[in-house]
Structures are given as C-alpha cells and as structure tokens.
Design a protein that fits this description.
mainly alpha; 2 domains; 3 helices
Length: 75
C-alpha cells in the first residue's frame, strides 16, 4: 500500500495535468458545446476562422449574413 502512495506522490504533477486536461475537454464538450450552435450558418463558412487575412469588408459581409438573433452570440 505504501508503495502505491509513494508512486502517486512522485507523479503528482503528472496526474494533476492529466486530470485538468480531461476536465477542460469535458467542459468544452458539454458546457461550451451548447454555445457553438449560435455560430453556424448552413451552406456557408461557419466562422471567421483563426486567420488574420480578413479585411473589414469580409467581416462586415459575414455579420450581414447572420440572422439578427445570432448577433447576441457575439456580445
């Protein structure tokens, strides 16, 4: 029994990292997953993406295509 306890003590940081990673994945899936439905537009790109290649006109066109009730998702 003491051998198991010593093993857990030695790898405590590793187990903490694994535990918090699993917690964040589950949080993103079950809590934040609901909010992502706000950002889908059928037949077009679902988001602006993570690039800096967009100009003001492209961003304004993206927001014009959103239904008015979805603008609250961005506030």
């Amino acid at each position: 029994m003491s051998r198991i306890i010593n093993q857990l003590k030695r790898n405590r940081t590793f187990y903490l990292a694994i535990g918090t990673t699993i917690t964040m994945i589950l949080y993103a899936q079950f809590v934040l997953g609901h909010y992502s439905t706000c950002f889908s537009i059928s037949g077009t790109s679902n988001s602006l993406g993570l690039t800096f290649g967009y100009n003001l006109h492209m961003v304004q066109d993206f927001f014009k295509n959103l239904p008015p009730e979805w603008h609250n998702c961005f506030l």
